Amino acid sequence: MTSIRSSAMLALALLASSSVFATGNHAGGHGHDADADIGKPGIAAKATRTVNVDMNDTMRFTPADISVKQNETVRFVIKNSGALKHELVLGTEKELREHYEVMKKNPEMEHADPNMVTLAPGKSGEIVWQFTRAGKVDFACLQPGHYDAGMKGAVSVSKATSK
């Protein structure tokens, strides 16, 4: 009975881990319920402006500080002008730190969530995001070593004014 129970627990553990890492993709773990703290995926047609962000091998984003208004939908056009793979991930500081620890253990992990884009050298991508809450939304590159080197930034979301 003990070996059956042990086998069942091992099978469940393998099944749980393979659902996240089976193909090297990472399309969850942040749950989009958690996105309520940072906003939600935006609708491109409702974007009020475009913000161009450059990522490079000096481990910096340009710009690293972005200001938006609450409820604004922004189209971020992100370019990797470096020779290394980089990414931009929107989240809370806590979520980014936790995800970074997972990335250090699984460096080949790819992302498929709407709050993030991973780019090969010379490539561009975009994120369309609606900032629903006033406050700060962090962003970072979670490739191993990049976050520790300071590759992070913040979006300051100013409170919407009532009419």
From TrEMBL:
Presence of the UniProt keyword Cell wall biogenesis/degradation in the record: no
Residues covered by the Blue (type 1) copper domain: 50-157
Record keyword Signal present: yes
Keywords associated with the record: Copper, Metal-binding, Periplasm, Signal
Main location (coarse class): periplasm
Coiled-coil segments: none
InterPro entries registered for this protein in UniProt: BlueCu_1, Cu-binding_ET, Cupredoxin
Gene3D superfamilies per the UniProt record, alphabetical: Cupredoxins - blue copper proteins
Entry-linked CDD domains: Cupredoxin_like_2
Protein name per its UniProtKB record: Cupredoxin family protein
